[in-house]
Specification:
152 residues, mainly alpha
Length: 152
């Protein structure tokens, strides 16, 4: 049962991390305030729709590599925030290196590269907060031994 709970925790953590990274990426790109205060409703509507589109795109791009990170961290019980920050930063740097599966290379634009790496770090931190702090299966699948039960 714990393994099923960890799968759901990883799924929810991934969704929250992708949404946080998309909102961060969009806010770093366009800001949090409209240029004209009279256009605030239009700005926030576009911001919400843009965040949803960016989250779906980032989720599609990051699903396979992040699934590998999740699997490794669960099997080896890696609970350090540093693991997830580095993994998110590396995943954010993939487009800058030209090896992202769904994205064209950024051609050396330092601002775009920094925003993507920072968005990856934000996503890694949010994943750690949601699911990474409790990573690790109790060893039932690795050794076949059941943890001892507390007897009254």
């Amino acid at each position: 049962m714990r393994a099923i709970g960890r799968i759901f925790a990883a799924l929810i953590g991934f969704i929250l991390a992708v949404v946080a990274a998309a909102v961060f990426m969009l806010s770093a790109s366009v800001g949090f305030e409209p240029a004209n205060p009279a256009d605030s409703v239009w700005f926030w509507g576009n911001f919400g729709i843009g965040s949803a589109i960016a989250a779906s795109y980032l989720g599609a791009m990051a699903l396979a590599p992040w699934a590998v990170v999740i699997l490794i961290s669960e099997v080896f019980r890696l609970r350090s925030v540093l693991v997830y920050l580095v993994a998110g930063g590396v995943l954010g740097a993939l487009p800058a290196l030209g090896i992202a599966p769904l994205m064209r290379p950024l051609d050396g634009n330092p601002r775009s590269i920094a925003i993507l790496i920072a968005a990856g770090i934000v996503g890694g931190f949010v994943y750690w907060m949601a699911a990474g702090r409790m990573a690790g299966i109790d060893g039932v699948f690795l050794t076949g031994n059941r943890p001892p039960k507390d007897e009254p």
